[in-house]
Amino acid sequence: MKRADYNRLKAIEYAKKWAYGRNPRYYNFDSIGGDCTSFISQCIYAGSGIMNYTKETGWYYNSVNDRSPAWSSVEYLHRFLINNKNVGPRGQQVEIDKLEKGDLIQLSFDGIKFSHTLIIVDIDMPKTLDNIYIASHTYDSFNRRVSSYNFQDIRYIHINGVWKW
Fold first, then answer.
1. 65/75 Cα distance (integer angstroms)
2. pLDDT digits (tens, 9 = 90+) for 25-70
3. Mind listing the domains of the chain with CATH numbers?
């Protein structure tokens, strides 16, 4: 397996194009719990160009009925990125100072369960919640400050790269 760069610019360009719309190639999950993580998976795919078709623990989308749990679930996406040792994108949980454009943020509104995924589209210095701008679905937005959310807990995921055969 070879490491390739995660194309952060392509991920952000995809986020900008589809932040306020829905790509017809993908199911819109808004009516069944929210489209945020599916949208972020689409952004990551735009920047990685490869899916991981490992049943149960992979990260892929062929159709609404043929997809991995990680494609559209906050917790499963986190688990996939942090634990992936196979093809596809890999990430790690980091502190705010390690974040880059194209990385992810996940929010917990109740302090118990993480339930919203965001992609970073811009960062000003110093890296504070007021200076990090995101895109998301469910609560459709582009260039929204993270500090505008009312949340109880937050975690940051840095995409380390993409592994391909």
1. 19
2. 999 999 999 999 999 999 999 999 999 999 889 999 999 999 999 9
3. 2-164 (3.90.1720)
